[in-house]
Every structure is written in structure tokens, then in C-alpha cells.
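Running this now, will post back.
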Amino acid sequence: MSDRYQDFTTSPIGKLLVKNLGLPNPTKLERYTDGAPLVDGTVLVGGTGRLVESLPGILDTLGIASATEKPAEGRIKGIVFDATGLADAAELRALRDFFTPVLRSLAPCARVVVIGTPPEQLTGSERVAQRALEGFTRSLGKEIGKGTTVQLVYVADGAEGAVASTLGFLLSPKSAYVSGQVVRIGAHGKGKVGEVSSDATRPLAGKVALVTGASRGIGEQIARVLHRDGATVVGVDVPQAASDLQGLMKELDGDWLTLDITAKDAPQRIAHHLSEKHGGVDVVVHNAGITRDKKLANMGEDRWDSVIAVNLTAPEAITRELLAQGVINKFGSIIGVASIAGIAGNVGQTNYAASKAGVIGFVDSLADELKDGITINAVAPGFIITQMTAAVPFATREVGQRLNAMSQGGLPVDVAETIAWYAHPGSSLVNGNVVRVCGQMMLGA
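Update: finished.
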């Protein structure tokens, strides 16, 4: 699906109107293509703290060129600033001193990552300074423009060796529609990093990934991206979608299971299938979801119950069954699909927003309980261009696409790439996170 307004802004008359009327002017986002380098350019490294000396070496292992001084010529494609050494409010001045002289040297669709220490692990002035980084990065993400993203990565003491997969994701076009986010590494126990495939282009080689609601839309893209990264995908969808599901899984050399995930025996059937046919599962993606919108004053029991059952009750029941039977392998990854509606709310979606906020609650409840290096995280998509959003009334759809720092809607692949980062074996200390894939909403966080 194309963005007609964005197409218009690139036309001669569109360029004129955008310039003279101050209309939104969305930059065409760079997205990852299979086989391309993670970063097409140089990443500037700076700051002071626990990671600054190791960052060039980490980037080198990812095939990313870095520099510690601004190049005399050419544009910078990314910045990584180590702010873990900022110990009080006065030292925050280092942010201005470093960033102000280099921001105009950033290329379009550049990536900015600030690294800090989780404030909850600190006290006094250090905690104050590290918490301030959130306001800095979120504000910079809203003002920087030209498709550039800004993120804050809190790295717990002792988790410095587990940042590579996160930097690879956040510095690359894979994170095109993710901005203004806070990621925590090692905040829920130090644990160990999972064994990473020697083939950097296929980090999920030999892994099995379960994707519910896999036959189309966002679920289809999740299946495709996980397959691209080497996983054997087991797609699940309702019997009505069997034809589409089977066609996709055959194309991806995957496996499929048709059932209603809200059925009483669905968790046991899924667990049995994964155990018998695949010997377990490494990645569990709870993507299946429905909407049944109505204002609460007019909402019948069936609308409420069906949304809660599909979006929240079923994922929780399936996860607990897989864990109870030991079907999820060591260093496995459980990933929920929440929604920006579950964070900010939405008119006519009390049922949907409750279910998606519940997904976030499920992440919170399990993050500290999981054993054997298993992690749980969630994505929270914003306005993603799909067949479903294409049916939204024109005015509502346009507002939904423009009220973010990117001035455009995202694509299903943006959600899929974020899930693939969670699933990466090198992300085994990324636990308990909820990352919004929303282009950074302009109002609120």
C-alpha cells in the first residue's frame, strides 16, 4: 500500500505547497534489503563511560565503520554516544557540547544511539543524570527530522558484552520506524548471551519460530523476516485462513497448524505439535489479534469477550502451557504484539486497549520469572499501513499517519524487523522491554 500524500509531496506542485504552506514533508525511509550492509557509511563514536573504548571493536564485528572524530568531508550515518559516565546534572552539558557541532553533518535517515546506565540501579546525582537522558533523546528524536531516529539504550553493569545485536538493529535501516525508544539490556538479571550463529546474515539458523496469525498482514511479514534470518517458521491461523497460511508456509519451507487459539485445547495442541514435529521451539510470536470497536456505552458482551480472548487470554494460556511442558528451548524468546492503543488509549477501543495493555502487563509479570535464559518482550505498533488501516476513514487515516516524528505510517516489515531483533540469540539480555514501532508519536511519549 502506498502513501498517496507522500507521493504527492514529491511532485512539482506538492513540493511548492509543502514549502509555502509548511505542510508535513515526510522523508522516504531507508529500509533494509537482504544482503545489504547494516550501515552504509560511518558511525561517529564519542562520550565517556564504561563502553566508549569497546564500541569501535563491537561495531567492527558488525561490519560497521566507525570514527572517534567528525570526518572532515562527507556525512555521518550514525552516532553512538556513551553517556554512562555522566554522574550529575552539571555533566549533562557534555550532551550539548558533543551533539551540537555534529548534528548538521548527519546524512538523511541517520541513526543516533545514546547509551546510559539504568537509573533504577543508581542513587543520588547519578540517578538524576541518567534519568535525564530520556528527555534528551525523546526530544532530539522529535526535532532532528529527515528520517533520522534517536534511541536510548540503558546497559546494566555487567551487560556490556551483550550490546552488539541491539546496536546492529538500532543503527541499521531495520529500525526505520522505531524512534524515541528506551531499551534496557541486562535490567532483569545478568544471565548469559545465547550462542550466536557464525553466519551474521542468518542469526536464527537452526531455530524454530512459532508465529500466530501468520497468514497475512503483519503476521506474514514476521514469518518472512524470521525465515530470512534462518528460522524454520511454524505458522498458526484460523481454519478460514488455511489456504493462505499453507501457501505462505510452503513458500517459506515452513510448517503450519490451523486452529482457533481461543479453543480450550489450543495450548495443548500447539505444545504437542511443536514437541513432536520440531523437538521444541525457540521463538514464540503472539501476533494474532482482532478489533471489535464500539464506544463502551454501546459495547455488547461478545465484542468485549472476543477481543480479550484472542488478544490476551490465548497468548497467556499458550505461553504458560509451553513453559510448563518445557517446550521453549534455552535462550528462547517470547514476543507479544501490544499496541500504542494499550499505552495511550483510543476512542472506541476500550476492549482492544485493555487487551494490549494486558500484553504489556504479561511481559512485566514474566520478565523476572523466566529460567534458562528465556526472555519476554513486546512490540507496540502505531499506525501501520495494512489492508485494515486502508479501510479507516480518509481524514482519520491522514491524521494517524502524520502525528509522528516521521510524518508517515509504518509498514508491517517495521514490526517484523523489531521482532527479529528480539529473537536474535545475541539479544538474550534484552528482557522485559516494550518498544513502540510508531515513528515516535509527536504528542506524548
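The chain has two domains: 31-185, 208-437. More later if anyone needs it.
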